[in-house]
Amino acid sequence: MHLIYNPVIHTKDKEGKEIDKICYMDFWKGRDSYRQLQNAFF
Asked: pTM to 2 decimals?
């Protein structure tokens, strides 16, 4: 199975409004965050 995943981050914009945005940099934090995600799904 192949999956294409676009992480949607719930955050606030400069004006303080709640927004959803696609952002890989905010999702993959830390050196082993991908490994932790794989272990969680296992």
From this structure: 0.42
